[in-house]
Amino acid sequence: xxxxxxxRVSHLGVVVxxxxxxxxxxxxxxxxxTAVGDLQVQRxxxxxxxxxxxxxxxxLSASVAGRFAAADPRFNVLAADFRSVGRSRREGNRAVLAxxxxxxxxxxxxxxxxTDADSRVPAHWLTRQLELAxxxxxxxxxxxxxxxxxxxxxxxxxxxxxxxxxxxxxxxYGANLGVRASAYLAAGGFPAAESGEDRSLVRKLRSGGxxxxxxxxxxxxxxxRLEARAPRGxxxxxxxxxxxxxxxEG
Length: 250
Description:
The protein is an alpha/beta fold. Helices cover about 40% and strands about 20% of the residues. Pathway: Carotenoid biosynthesis; staphyloxanthin biosynthesis; staphyloxanthin from farnesyl diphosphate: step 4/5.
């Protein structure tokens, strides 16, 4: 299951699930485009695809994603009615794997970077993931930080008091998770769950002996909103922390 140290990634997919994210999606995709550009400067021959999975969207998310797809051939859109972030991630990853497989790319050379539609990745996000992949990582668990813009100062301070942003952290965030396709497939992929699909996948990766790198070197900024899209997701945790600082778990 574990990729040999130094196995070179030749195809990369970015999967972005979205449910009614017209407010944040444009910034998320612009950040992803910048990260793709940074990566392709470093690796000119690398095949890259960004796939937005529009799940039961009733707002203008489709228009936002469509503008990127029309302007940039590296962007694709998949419209669905899953009503499940786990299934959205699963189907998005499946589509990336199918496209790369049709090109004859071995699973060990495919890397899938997962993020969220309310999150902004740094410019070096993908470059750093592949540096760790080249060093032998089967999966990269990145860190996230709530966007301070519009967020209650006390809540932000409580969040930081509970989360040490450093390498070798123990957190798992779907907004910042990269995985080699061979390891992903061996672990059974993301479960089609309403939430917790990221932690479930990482548990399976660990139990299967995958090499996992946890890093704060490619931190993602994610929305500090309290209105949850997925039950028991990041926003749900923030809301619980706001209501009961002692009892929230996450």
